Sequence to fold (526 residues):
Amino acid sequence: MIRRIGRHFREAFHGLIRHGAMTLSSAAAISLALLFVGIFILISQNIRDITYSIEESVQIHVKIDRNYETQDQINILQIQITEIPGIKEVIFSSKDQELDSLIESFGEDGQIFESYRGDSNPLRHAFLVDVIDGNLIERVALSIERIAGVETVRYGGAKTVELMNVLDSVRNWGYILVIGLIVIAVFLISNTIKLSIASRRDEIAIMRTVGAKNGFIRMPFLIEGMVIGILGSIMPIGITVGGYFYLYELLGGFLISQMFVLHPPLPLLYYIGTALVILAMIVGMMGSFVSVTKHLRWKR
Amino acid sequence: MRNVSKTYQNGVNALYNINLTIEQGEFVYIIGPTGSGKSTLIKLLDGEEIPSKGLVEVVGINIGKLRHSKVPVYRRNIGVVFQDFKLLEKKTVFENVYFALEVINMPKLKARQRVREVLQLVGLSEKANSYPHELSGGQQQRTAIARAIANRPKLLICDEPTGNLDPQKSNDIIQLLEKINEEEKTTILMVTHDVNIVNQFRRRTIALQEGHIVADLSEGGYIRND
Fold:
């Protein structure tokens, strides 16, 4: 087997050169599919990052009613909120702390609120609630609202949640798209390779007559498919890697605002490159396998 | 080739209840008009067709029971020569013969030596580097024979090997086959409808007609051709 692998490679390269046009068109089919796959992985990775950072920053702000300000009542409230499913963390924030963050949020001008410190503080005690998953935020907020002693519930806005849902569905549709593209690529390749093999059908039958096992006949074709895959992966790898580096430099690592930090190019691009090459080889080999097997069955 | 007894019935133009035993080392003609079942007989023997009834056994292997993937392995025990040669067009004479040995994993040096040996035997040594299309029909057929016998099969099946050749070339081929039969002790089963050959080179002759064996003459010779 090892001894003959050289022979299989030789035959495969002869085949590739003899059917140059077929080689190129199959490689082009793989290229196109993989280009989409590469771009999709980049987009998907960034969506994941952005969703994650949004989820991190989204917090529910719960104001406590004036009639529930004793320490015992506060403790009970905290336990009640913590018991709601999907809660990550509940932090108590006293009137003073609330004032601090209010002053902070106004920056320089915030100092005018200092006069409210002490008993005249009109603010309420509050809880800062983090949820496990951004999607849960609406439901959790509603549950908290129903608890007696809660005055108001506020969170980062319905718009944020909506955006997250949109991004999520973009990603899910992307998966479907990519799987579809790979299937199409396999089909295209097996079709182009089939054309070249059809002209070699007699050759395959003769090989079997002389005593060549199916694996022996198949091997050079599989290598051909693999090489076609590798050829086809060059272009999409070049474009995704080069393109992303360029885009990252151009935008300075951010998309629109500081909130959307782009995923750093390395090592992500190494992974994508490797994934694309492996995927291309598998797709190429599957394409060849399908069509050779068909022709092996032509004659017993 | 031992104990080939077969009884089978195959589709429309069938072979009916054929019982036939050919011993190792024999030289046998199978003769009959077109449609008499000669080709079917050969296809059954080389594993291309499966008998619908009965048993085909060559060198102790039940061919009807072979799986698709095992057919080539079985074929290493037999050599087949076709009317239309079936050579690999993109390979030279030498490579065509070499391929049959490469496939059975014979070491390179041994294989090369064996190729030279069989090319010598069929008298094509000086054409080793020619491509099939550069050769005459007779030369192509001798290449095919060389390829068929390269791995020393126990049985050589020849399907109308002289069908495309003129009488002189045909005689050369038959003489070559007889030589192989003697020198390599290969059983030879030759299908033909050429009565002249059968009469000139007398050997055991089996006549087929409409799927039946109508004669089996160990002395060979005249077959009435309707």
Notes: Helices of chain B lie at 38-45, 71-75, 93-103, 108-122, 137-149, 167-183, 195-200. The mean pLDDT of chain B is 83. Chain B has two domains: 1-77+155-226, 86-152.
